[in-house]
Amino acid sequence: MKATIATVKNHLEETVTIGAWLHNKRSSGKIAFLQLRDGTGFIQGVVVKSAVSEEVFEMAKSLTQETSLYVTGKVVEDNRSPLGYELQVSDLEVIHEAEDYPITPKEHGTEFLMDHRHLWLRSKRQHAIMKVRNEIIRSTYEFFNQEGFVKVDPPILTGASAEGTTELFHTKYFDEDAYLSQSGQLYMEAAAMALGRVFSFGPTFRAEKSKTRRHLIEFWMIEPEMAFIDHEESLKIQENYVSHVVQSVLENCKIELQTLERDTSKLENIKAPFPRITYDDAIQFLKDKGFDDIDWGDDFGAPHETAIAEAYDKPVFITHFPIEIKAFYMKPDPNNSKVALCADLIAPEGYGEIIGGSERIDDLELMKQRYDEHQLNGPAYEWYLQLRKYGSVPHSGFGLGLERTVAWITGTEHIRETIPFPRLLNRLYP
Fold first, then answer.
1. pLDDT, position 211
2. Which UniProt keyword terms apply here (predicted)?
3. 85 φ, ψ to 5°?
4. Are 368 and 375 in contact (CB under 8 A)?
5. Do residues 321 and 289 lie in contact, with contact meaning Cβ atoms separated by under 8 Å?
6. In which residue ranges of the chain is pLDDT below 50?
7. Alpha-carbon distance 288 to 227, whole Å?
């Protein structure tokens, strides 16, 4: 009977055959321990000399790292294993013998591992991170489906910038200019006017020449937009969404979090509501902490975000940023036109901003004014202005960066490990 490592729990005391790769092994004169992986998980196969043919035992001792094989054996309980089971091997069949596998159990430098990213993904740690990433994606769809959102796919090739910046990848679109999308938000606003509550999940691109542990050139964003939802209602949806994702990972990725040695006590507390601090109060807090390099009107850097986050044991919203340092489409606070109805959600433990969101401008005349201020009067933005002309309504939205969220939840120091094949400032291979 064929099985996978993930399904062996359904075959206790039964004999199964698993297609696998040899992750590692150790052996003595009478027993060989095979660390096996098949993509769904890791399991130990025990080959006892007295229980198998001489040919099988010699094969077990000579297997090389990452050799692919079919392993047949009996599933038994093993309380010492994170999986809870092991395989008492009765037969082996080599599919392909791997020779001189470059990533050995010894330590390797980061650049070496990045050059071999296509193979590094096979390691236990990288496997665990990818499984957590998958669970975050799965629970994202679950949350928004339960909340009545419709999945909409915005274009990747666009004729204009969503943020009004120059950090765009330019390309020719036949005889006109085009750019790789840095956000699907503008298109999602159009979709929200048609479908009410929508969300996108797709790749975005920033031509930002940054080498920090928080930045990628290509990354994935979850971008919901919601008609008839104000800033306050949006914050509640954001904190409920993040809470749902974290609790889903805790429930469904126990082995992976154990592999990563993640302190799950710090995640168990991540439940809505989240604390909030205004930009004004954040500036004063930082000054009280001795940060003399920050003044009202400045944006926060990584040290500032970390200092604020350390004051809380949950993600914290920083709200009401100055209009001047935020995107053109953010709605001013009716009680203070110098600040926007917006918020950044800062993750604990120094992982920085994971969500940026705001209530959007819904007034046609104010949006025209913003267009003039930001010199956005070209034809590429005309359709976005029309959203305020034909049945405008209050609406809000936000964007969550998947890789930063994976880094925080897994406790991964550098964002390059949170995406299968990272695109960095100096890396386009593999």
1. 87
2. Aminoacyl-tRNA synthetase, ATP-binding, Cytoplasm, Ligase, Nucleotide-binding, Protein biosynthesis
3. -145, 160
4. no
5. no
6. none
7. 39
Cα separation, 245 vs 227, in Å, equals: 23
CA distances from 39 to 23, 126, 151 (A): 11, 11, 28
| Encoded tokens for 313 | 């044991």
Q: In this structure, what are the phi and psi dihedrals at residue 87, rounded to the nearest 5 degrees?
A: -115, 125
Distance CA 103, CA 61 (A): 20
- Asked if 161 and 182 count as a contact pair (C-beta separation under 8 A), the reply is yes
What are the structural domains, with CATH classification, of the chain?
Answer: 5-96 (2.40.50.140), 118-418 (3.30.930.10)
Task: Give the β-pairing of 197-205 and 150-151.
Answer: parallel
Integer Cα distance of 142 and 145 in angstroms: 5
- What is the Cα–Cα distance from 214 to 403, expressed in whole angstroms? 9
